[in-house]
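[#protein-structures] MJ: dropping Class II fructose-1,6-bisphosphate aldolase here for a structure pass
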Amino acid sequence: MPLVSIKEMLNNALKRKYAVGQFNINSLEFAQAFLQAAKEENSPVILGITEVAAENMGGVKLIALMVQELIEKYQVQVPVALHFDHSSSYEKCVEAMYVGFSSVMIDGSHHPLEQNIALTQKVVDVAKVLGVSVEAEMGRITGEEDGIVVDECEGTYAVPKECEKFVRETGVDCFAPAIGTVHGPYKGEPNLRFDLLAEIMQRTGVPLALHGGTDIPNDYIKKAISLGIAKINVNTENQIVFATAVRKVLTEQPDLYDLRKYVGSAREAVKDSVKRKMREFGSSGQA
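AK: finished. structure tokens for Class II fructose-1,6-bisphosphate aldolase:
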């Protein structure tokens, strides 16, 4: 089955009141786990990868080929999107589109509003021609992602009126407003601004994305979905599950050197974790 954009996938999720998980690729094993989980759960899925992670793995072309080959190998028939995540570069987004990514995120959230709009419009113009979906962000989400740290002093909530203007003028397919989530583990209880989320949904009408989906309580997830969240990003949690599984195997078998054995256990652990997320998000059985 060919890769699909997130546009129809997320519009369906918004209409039916569930969310599609975006799970980030950090190695071959992560991509295997995500696709196997989606097949077993009969769930749509978004495989994401950041610019830095893609370069570490050999570049966006290799990632696109790898995912397409795995879909064929596993005979995956559920909708799968390949998403270029959190890129601040127009050129890199266009490169990802041309090598086979079905969705991109242009992140100009660190720019003033008008500059963010202009940058996003450029990406959308190309994406529309190629049938690729575009996600964008407003506000600054705190925490760390790929070495980029936004501390609490720099973090800002999205402003609903600005979000309305942004979505109207750019025509993005998915919008990620900063409402209090963080990239990476939470320090204490998550504090999400559901009032902002509700107003932003009312003003924009497009599927919304929740970044920083690790450690969010299930009741928060359900409320966010009811208010317009159709896409939830999870990365840190899967990395922790993977690392924990590797440590466990090597602690129990300190002389083990066959990578396939300890990495295989980690892949299975991630797959099981992702399947649980799909059930929590309500996407299981929705393919």
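MJ: nice. Residues 147-154 have pLDDT under 50 and may be disordered.
AK: one more thing. The radius of gyration is 18 Å.
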